[in-house]
Amino acid sequence: MSSLSQAVSIHDVRQLGINLNHWYVVARSQEVTNKPLGVTLWHQAIALYRDSEGQIHALEDRCPHRQVKLSHGQVIGNELECAYHGWRLNHHGECAAVPYLAENQKLPNCKIRHYPVKEQDGFIWLFPGDGEPSIEPMGLPEWDHLNYIASVAIINCQAHYSYLIENLMDMYHGHLHQDLQAWAQAELQDIEETDERVDAHYQAQSYYKIDKIWSISQLFFPALRRLHPEPLDVSYIYPHWMSTLGKDFKIYCLLCPINETQTKAYLIHFTSLNAFWRLHKLPVWFRRFVKDSLFGAAQKFLDGLVVKDVQMIEEEQQAYLQNPQRRNYELNRALVSVQRLMKNQAS
Ligand code: FES
Ligand SMILES: [Fe+2]
C-alpha cells in the first residue's frame, strides 16, 4: 500500500477497524446450546458452547490438530470435541484428550485462544481485547425488569458498522419509515460528546402513548395512534447504541461487526408498563406472565424498520465500493461527533 493510500484509509471511516477492548454481543442466550455455535467477530472465528453445567465458553474456532472448525464438533461434558479425529479441548483451549493416544505418548502441548464471555440479559457478551477486561458489559437493565416488554430483531447487513451507527444516530431518516409511523418531525436540539459516547437529543413527534393498558394495542392498530411531541434521545455508547422515545419506549442496538463490509446486530425494543401503577401491585408471577405473554409485541414494527434501514445501508456501502472517493453532503452535526468517536476508538 502506498503511503498516500494509507493516509486515505486511516481517515476513511468506512475502512475503520474496531476497538477490541470492549464487550461485543455475539449471540442471543437461546442460540447457545450444548451444540457448538460458530460466530465471527471482526475477522475472528469463534466457537461458542454451553457445558454440562450450563456455563458458556468461547474458544477460537479451529482445532489445533489440523485447523478444522471446532464448531462442527460436539460438546462432551465440559469439553469441546473436534469432529475429525476426536481430540478434546477444555475451556481454557488446552488439549485435554486424544482418543488414540498411545501409552508412551503425551498429550500434545497445544493451546488455542479462549475469550472472556458472559451471559447477561438474554445475550452472550464477548471481550476480544487484550488480557482480562477491566470494564463490564453495557447490559440491558430492562431485560428482566417486570415493567418492560421486549421484542428482538436481528440485523444482518452487508455493510461497514459505521453505516449502521450513522443510520441509528440520524433521526432525520424518519422519512424512510413513514408508513410504519415510527416517529416524525425530528429536530436536533443538542449533542454531548465524550471519549466513550455521543448523546444526541432530538425533539420529535411520536405516534404512540402507552398510558392505558389497552393502549398497547396501538402497536397493532394504527388508527389508535395520535401524533404528539416527545423527546427522542439517541446515544452511541461505543460500540453499542441506545435510544429513548418519551417515557414509553427504549431501543437498544447491540453490535457484532464481522468485517469491513458485514455487520450483525441485535435490535431490542422495550415497551414500558411504568404508567400502570395498578399492575405493579399484582403478584410477581402474574406480572411475569404479562411480560412473557407480550414478548414480541413490537416484532412486526421492528422487523419493518430493519428491512428498510438495511436496504439503505447496503446501498450506501455499494455506492462507496464503486466510488470510495465520492464525498457526502451531511447536514446533521451529530454525525460529525459520531465519526470522531469511531475514529478515536478504532485508532
Ligand atoms: S483436526 Fe481436530 S482432531 Fe484432528
Ligand atoms: Fe431506521
UniProtKB/TrEMBL annotation:
Domain Rieske: 23-126
EC number: 1.14.13.82
Protein name: Rieske (2Fe-2S) region
GO molecular function, one term: 2 iron, 2 sulfur cluster binding
Enzyme class: oxidoreductase
Superkingdom of source: Bacteria
Record keywords: 2Fe-2S, Iron, Iron-sulfur, Metal-binding, Oxidoreductase
InterPro entries listed in its UniProt record: Cholesterol_7-desaturase (IPR050584), Rieske_2Fe-2S (IPR017941), Rieske_2Fe-2S_sf (IPR036922)
